[in-house]
Amino acid sequence: MRLSTLFGRTLRQAPAEAETTSHRLLLRGGFVRPVAAGIYAYLPLGWAVLRRLEAILREEMSAIGGQEVRLPVLHPADLWRATDRWSRLGPELIRFQDRTGRDFALGMTHEEVITALARQEIRSYRQLPCLVYQIHTKVRDEPRPRGGLIRLREFLMKDAYSFHADMADLDAFYPRVQQAYRTIFARCGLSVVMVQADPGMIGGSGSHEFVLPSPVGEETIVLCGQCSYAADADLGEVSKRLADEPPPALDQPPALVETPGVTTIADLAYFFNRPLTAFLKTVFFVADGRLVAVCIRGDLEISEAKLRRVLGAQTLRLATAEELQAVGIPPGFGSPVGLRNVLVVADDSVPGRSFIAGANRPDYHLLNVVPGRDFQADIVADIAQAAAGWPCARCGGPVESTRGLELGHTFKLGITYSQALGATYRAADGHEHPLVMGCYGIGLDRLMAAIVEQHHDEKGIVWPPAVAPADLHLCALAIDQPAVRQEAEILYQRLQQAGYQVLYDDRDESPGVKFADADLIGIPWRLTVSPRTLQAGVVELKARTAPTAELVPRDDLFQRLSVITGRAIRAG
Questions:
Q1: DSSP, res 385
Q2: CA nearest to 292, candidates 301, 300, 283
Q3: What domains lie within the chain, and their CATH numbers?
Q4: Are 7 and 43 in contact (CB under 8 A)?
Q5: SS3 405
Q6: How far apart are CA 388 and CA 301, in angstroms?
């Protein structure tokens, strides 16, 4: 690629709306350009990075037996209706009608389509296990696109699907994909953490995320430094037992106390001059259309992921003030005491002590509320978010939390989709059984952004060699001099013939502009030809991260490049 004719240019300043380092540098370096909120065009440099990421993904998927397919972006609504996701998903699923009035969706995920294909193509246990994957565009009407390539409405995804005879086979295969993912991220120069995760709208019985610790991430993960336990904070397991936990005051009945306008746990703690642990926090949800009172100790937060799992709910949302008032619960003063026809779920931090709780009466609370005496929980389970400072539930070691970017996700789908769509296989005994499925995804746009977030300095991007848009950045200084231009052109041709990808700066610009752009774009190695190097019979070679350059004799250049790139390539 020649910079003089390259489609795309570098920018001295990033647009004001660029909010993350990767967003700023990818715009300034001429890799991407915005078209609309959450929609980006890739310029040649950005596309070159994507192609290298795709190559890594294809190699690692092929290494575990993956077969590449290409699935459509347009999905008939009937497939989504069969799994009930047509009605369960909101406006994030883009829907439309064709000219005949038939309903379609733009694919934000492909479980329905691949399962329908497997129903046709997989007939016998002899074809199992089977892994197929694609690298293709997906579309999601994301309500809050952010961070440049971090959260998009149109994005490139590597999604893979595996099919198995039973859960035992899926359980045996699942770690192979996880290891492939570790290899992929390592080849991209990223140190990720695999954590237990919520399957969300994809569903299934088990799920893990591959998270890059980063301050720009949207995920909160908890890590135990003692036993290496790691999980999404919504699913993390910590010990919530208090060292000075008093026994419940069984001999003291509930006492009504006026608390005018005091509706939050923090305000209650100030009003009563008591710690947060003294209060019973009650939050009301609607799960699959049913009102649920969810109780937890006041110093803890409710994990909707755990709550959804405990309830087995397909849909879960906070109850509105109008819904609470309709059944006589004043918002801000509710509790499970005296409630009827409301499912009560209590965190396992609740039993065994007394609390201050809402009185289900405006501007009043109750003292000495004892679970089991003053109300009965229908379900008691761990529904608390994990947070830093609590002991690890597995080993007792200290738990820390950090922000992170989700880069990959793996799911054990089981028979959720195959059963809904009638995808079966004939077993050795001649009987039909539903296919057991796994699902595995990596977003390439976010992967590119994550690499830049982890690999940059004050001058620009520092691409790991495996994913850089080119192997070498060739700069010709004083290119208006015929001898310099001729030398640079010959070297450019020889490098390409030797198999190197080269970005050639053949512009008539000053050395300062050329070197600044080279640092901004971030290709690992820079070669410079100038009147000085021409006279000395050398080529200047500089690593992107090195403070100084070295002068390499012209005749030794290709041998030196072979050493530093690890590629034994014959010079042209």
A1: P
A2: 283
A3: 21-209+404-452 (3.30.930.10), 255-381 (3.90.960.10), 470-565 (3.40.50.800)
A4: yes
A5: strand
A6: 12
How far apart (Å, rounded) are the C-alpha atoms in residues 48 and 467?
9
- Counting every residue written for the chain, the total comes to 572
Q: State which H helix or E strand residue 402 sits in.
A: strand 399-414
| Pairing of the two strands 219-224 and 230-232 | antiparallel
Measured CA angle at 149 (ends 7, 406), to 5 deg: 145
pLDDT tens digits along 249-286: 778 899 999 999 998 999 999 999 999 999 999 999 99
**How does DSSP classify residue 555?**
G
Helices 444-454 and 21-28: angle between axes, nearest 10 degrees: 100
Alpha helices (H) along 224-320: 265-272, 304-311
Report which DSSP code applies to 415.
T
d(CA 339, CA 342): 6
DSSP classification of residue 16: T
* Cα 490–chain centre separation: 45
Contact 357, 369 (CB under 8 A): yes
Give start and end residues of each alpha helix (H) in 217-303: 265-272
Give the strand pairing for 154-164 and 130-139.
antiparallel
User: For residue 128, which of 160, 159, 162, 161 has the smallest C-alpha distance?
Assistant: 162
Segment 203-237, tens digit of pLDDT: 667 899 999 999 999 889 999 888 888 889 988 88
Provide the CA 249 distance to its chain's centre, in angstroms: 46
Question: In three state form, how does the secondary structure of 147-175 look?
Answer: CCCCECCEEEEEEEEEEECCHHHHHHHHH
Task: Kindly state the greatest CA–CA separation across the chain.
Answer: 100
Q: Which of 173-177, 239-243, 420-424 has the lowest mean pLDDT?
A: 239-243
d(CA 111, CA 79): 10
State both tokens at 149. Answer: 């390539």
CB burial class (10 A; 0-12, 13-18, 19+) of residue 258? Answer: exposed
Tally of CB atoms within 10 A around 20:
19
Beta bridge partners of 106: 74
DSSP state of 2: B
Please give the full DSSP string across 463-501, using - where no structure is assigned: --GGG-S-SEEEEESSTTSHHHHHHHHHHHHHHHHTT--
d(CA 338, CA 328): 11
What lies within 8 Å, CB to CB, of 489 at 6+ separation is none
CB 360 within 8 A of CB 339: yes
Supply the mean pLDDT for the chain: 94
